[in-house]
Design goal:
The chain is mainly α. 60% of the residues lie in helices and 0% in strands.
Length: 135
């Protein structure tokens, strides 16, 4: 995913910022992992009638919701990435995403701030399934 020839450069020096030749692998990870995670949490928040000001971190403190999200990642998402030889990267991205969701300093807002409509959520999931099916 990096710059194999070392020719790309930018003003960034932080080790978490990477210059890449191809953005597709990073995009492939983000949508079904980070965005789907938000969608699952928003769905659970809405179905359970949870407090409007509840943070994403607080929602994940509910063991049942955390287990539900972990099961979706493990049973539905990660196997798709494994088909493309991206299993390790996807596992790492899930860990990073969950750390981000739980980080109190990022102050991730309540799911009410997640404006994904049911149709956009379906489109995100459909795009992942379309990518996985040909493999």
């Amino acid at each position: 995913m990096g710059d194999p020839q070392g020719q790309l450069c930018g003003p960034f020096r932080h080790p978490a910022v990477r210059m890449v030749v191809d953005l597709e692998p990073a995009e492939r990870l983000k949508i079904p992992i980070l965005n789907l995670g938000h969608t699952v949490l928003a769905d659970q928040w809405k179905k359970q009638g949870r407090a409007a000001d509840e943070s994403v971190r607080a929602i994940l403190d509910d063991p049942a919701i955390a287990a539900h999200l972990a099961a979706i990642y493990a049973e539905e998402v990660l196997p798709g990435f494994a088909l493309y030889g991206m299993g390790y990267e996807a596992e790492r991205y899930v860990v990073t995403t969950l750390e981000r969701f739980r980080n109190p300093f990022l102050a991730t807002g309540s799911p009410t701030s997640l404006r994904a409509t049911p149709s956009s959520s379906r489109n995100r999931i459909a795009a992942f399934l379309d990518w996985v099916r040909p493999a």
